[in-house]
Amino acid sequence: MNTTTRPTPSAAGRLRVCILGSTGSIGTSTLDVLARHPQAYEVTTLTAHGRIDELAAQCLTWRPRQAVVARADQAADLQQRLRAAGLSTEVLHGADALCQVAADPGTDAVMAAIVGAAGLPPCLAAARAGKRLMLANKEAIVLGGALFMNAVKAGGATLLPIDSEHSAIFQCLPEDRSTWASRIDHIVLTASGGPFRERDPATLASVTPDQACAHPNWVMGRKISVDSATMMNKALEVIEARWLFDLRPEQVRVVLHPQSIIHSMVVCRDNSVLAQMGTPDMRVPIAYGLSWPARIESGASRLDFLGLKPLTFEPADERRYPGLMLAWQALRAREGSTAVLNASNEVAVEAFLAGRLRFDQIAALNADLLARLAVPETAASSVEGLLALDQETRALARQRVLELAA
């Protein structure tokens, strides 16, 4: 995580921003923050996978130089619409186009908000190009690990975490990364516990997708909401924190904090505890990523200390959240095992949302894949090796879903 590089703004003095995944919750929140500071930021690129109508509306508002969609037919449709509206936006399509726009010399900063393993290649492209890389795609670092962090270092990129927990840790630490190891004893990631924190674990087999997506504190996409309900999101965040802050697995801990007011904590070597607090609103870490090391208006509500309910903390129940414990297991296994965990979980969540897998089978499937799939020794040494491992895991996970449904 480069702490000295500063992006070079455009001739107009505005930071030029590319948003990968602009129609998702992080993407739309980013645009909300940017709209509050039109003199400071310029949107150069917007991308979306399937929400073409929403992307078209965003392009009409923001008039980016480029837009990227998944398929050629979507690109032709969007290009025709934008031309009819008098926009000169160039519409591209496909995975290679995402990497192209992420590394574009006309962009200073990249908001990486694509969900899943698909976010790794464009994140690597942005890192190698030395961008200000605002990382909301935890799967990129979970999948990429050392390969990803080495790309950040080699490219001279500025890596800024956007997950509320990792942003909280980052905000509690000094700019000089070289001092971190001497300061940190361990970090504590807080977790809301999701919608089933007080539910009898024996009843989780009957959970429906809509119930799993009803998060008590955060408004998120369905995949991330399910991950929150299983606490697999926290497992991925444990892995992400290990790499972001160069920690040993045992230096990353998790505690339930249902109010989501304290977003995470750093326990220092002298046992002082530094915590970042605020209302649960993703615009805060987004605004910090955009403006670091300065601070700008985010649009989030100010914390009212006199109106706060008591802040409580609880241990994470292994019976209720068996998937959480897989994080440390994967980190202690051969490098690349975290990619297996991530890929298996994406397949499991997709199957659950489609009604082909029970809620309680998500963690069981992930544990099964982690135990049974042999990770090649060199898998984590290249993007090709990691993506091959990712695809192998997905194929085996889909086969296991079919077997469990039989």
UniProtKB/TrEMBL annotation:
The molecular function terms of the Gene Ontology recorded here are: 1-deoxy-D-xylulose-5-phosphate reductoisomerase activity; isomerase activity; manganese ion binding; NADPH binding
Catalytic activity entry: 2-C-methyl-D-erythritol 4-phosphate + NADP(+) = 1-deoxy-D-xylulose 5-phosphate + NADPH + H(+)
Note the Gene3D superfamilies from the entry.
1.10.1740.10, NAD(P)-binding Rossmann-like Domain
Cofactors required: Mg(2+); Mn(2+)
Q: Which Pfam families does the record cross-reference, listed alphabetically?
A: DXP_redisom_C, DXP_reductoisom, DXPR_C
Binding of Mn(2+): at which residues?
A: D163, E165, E237
Residue ranges constituting the DXP reductoisomerase C-terminal domain according to the UniProt record: 277-395
Q: What is its EC number?
A: 1.1.1.267
An example GO biological process term is:
isopentenyl diphosphate biosynthetic process, methylerythritol 4-phosphate pathway involved in terpenoid biosynthetic process
Residue ranges annotated for the 1-deoxy-D-xylulose 5-phosphate reductoisomerase C-terminal domain, each copy included? 159-245
Which residues take part in binding 1-deoxy-D-xylulose 5-phosphate?
Answer: K138, S164, E165, S192, H215, S228, N233, K234, E237
Domain spans labelled 1-deoxy-D-xylulose 5-phosphate reductoisomerase N-terminal: 17-145
Q: Per its UniProt record, what HAMAP family does this chain match?
A: DXP_reductoisom
Q: Which family does it belong to?
A: Belongs to the DXR family.
Please report the name of this protein according to its UniProt entry.
1-deoxy-D-xylulose 5-phosphate reductoisomerase
Native source species: Sphaerotilus mobilis
